Amino acid sequence: MGRIKGQDGDALDLAMGVLLWITCTKRQLTTSELQHALAVEQGVPKLDKENIPQVDDMVSVCAGLVVVDEESSIIHLVHYMTQDYFEARKKYWFPDAESNFTIICVTYLSFNYTFESGPCLTDEEFEARLQQNPLYNYAAQNWGYHAHAAATKLDQLILDLLKSDSKVFASSQALI
What we know:
Number of strands: 3
Distance between the termini: 40 Å
Protein name: GPI inositol-deacylase winged helix domain-containing protein
Mean pLDDT: 91
Structural class: mainly alpha
Pfam families: WHD_GPIID
Helix content: 55-70%
Strand order of the largest sheet: 1-3-2
Largest sheet: 3 strands, antiparallel
Order of helices and strands: HHEHHEEHHHHHHH
Radius of gyration: 16 Å
Domain GPI inositol-deacylase winged helix: 14-89
Low-confidence stretches: none
Strand content: 5-15%
InterPro entries: GPIID_WHD
Shape: globular
Number of domains: 2
Number of helices: 11
């Protein structure tokens, strides 16, 4: 962690974001899911493609702690002992993990340009939505868990999502 903490601001932020998501999520993420998670900005109603980090950058800033499984595109810690280390210390390294996940997931599901139209009417449209929005499935399935586990109350953010029937229906579609 010393090598990671010794990096400049942007590289350090990216590394800590990658390690946060790899260590504390409900399931392993693909590289594209993680790229989208790291690109979300709270309060911004759409994803800025300029914010999507490159996979090589996500791996390199983590100083040998993470690898990508070429077959599944899952990004994970290099060794189970590394996972055990972060699991045992996640409250130290990532004290606001659940709040951060809630903010990212709810913000993602609140994107106007994507989910304001409501649920997809065909399987093809739904598959296209999943492809274009890699974090959609994870966010829809897990935002409630993260909100419940969060130490910080995020009521207004969640209410803003739930006030939009079309966004709620679009989110619910990923649960089926």
